[in-house]
């Protein structure tokens, strides 16, 4: 398979409605030159447990089950930006979309610590997916804090994709949260509802640190955990979205 290792360019003929002109729309990942074949081989070593790759029928680009919508609501913390919304009912635990972007290493010249769209793919290998300049619908998923008191309704999960010739590749997927033991999320995500994840404490810790520009390695951050409690933690010096 020939990989796109050049500057990000759209690798899909069609783009979703409201797609920004200055961001390349991807249907498959884009790889930085620093992501070597050896690194990719390490990334794609299958775990010993049996793998159920995602069905290719779920990988439509653009996706018909979600839409990117401008947020015009003063009470929404991302007012004036965009969010990702369900175009149909999404059942608990169902697959929503892949998180696509530029797959990059943690080398200083290959990573952007200020990115608001960088998701860790493999911490040990130092591989991330940055959707600042190229990506798909998933780059518009907001964090639940300040939006939905009940907490997130979706999460990032490792997934495997069959790329042909019996080869599997590791990616990150966005899934509706499971119904939960008590069944409190049994409804899944309703049509028209915003898809919301948790970016993790590290992301918001870094944002707070930047705002306060204290320059320390860690910052004390507090946030609404979604169930009415306010927690305070030392945020690690990372601005990446966390799995
Ligand atoms: C991955 S982007 C999400 C999409 C973004 N709203 C857009 O239109 O491009 C992450 C950025 O969205 C905004 N954001 C997401 N969730 C937020 C929240 N709960 N509160 C405030 N800002 C949020 C922040 O500006 C953050 O840096």
From TrEMBL:
Pfam families of this UniProt entry? SET
Recorded superkingdom? Eukaryota
Where do the SET domain residues begin and end? 62-200
Please name the InterPro entries in this protein's record.
SET_dom (IPR001214), SET_dom_sf (IPR046341)
Q: What is this protein called?
A: SET domain-containing protein
What is the native source organism of this protein? Cryomyces minteri
């Amino acid at each position: 398979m020939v990989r796109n290792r050049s500057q990000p360019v759209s690798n899909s003929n069609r783009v979703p409605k409201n797609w920004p002109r200055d961001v390349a729309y991807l249907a498959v990942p884009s790889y930085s030159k620093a992501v070597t074949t050896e690194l990719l081989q390490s990334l794609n070593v299958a775990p010993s447990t049996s793998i159920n790759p995602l069905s290719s029928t779920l990988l439509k680009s653009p996706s018909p089950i979600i839409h990117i919508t401008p947020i015009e609501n003063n009470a929404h913390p991302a007012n004036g930006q965009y969010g990702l919304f369900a175009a149909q009912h999404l059942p608990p635990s169902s697959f929503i979309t892949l998180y696509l972007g530029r797959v990059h290493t943690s080398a200083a010249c290959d990573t952007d610590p200020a990115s608001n769209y960088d998701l860790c793919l493999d911490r040990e290998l130092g591989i991330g997916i940055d959707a600042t300049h190229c990506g798909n619908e998933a780059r518009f998923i907001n964090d639940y804090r300040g939006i939905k008191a009940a907490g997130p309704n979706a999460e990032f999960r490792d997934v495997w994709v069959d790329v042909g010739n019996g080869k599997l590749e590791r990616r990150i997927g966005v899934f509706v949260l499971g119904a939960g033991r008590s069944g409190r999320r049994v409804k899944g995500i309703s049509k028209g509802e915003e898809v919301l994840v948790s970016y993790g404490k590290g992301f918001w810790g870094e944002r707070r640190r930047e705002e306060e520009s204290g320059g320390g390695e860690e910052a004390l951050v507090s946030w609404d955990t979604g169930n009415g409690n306010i927690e305070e933690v030392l945020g690690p010096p990372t601005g990446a979205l966390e799995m």
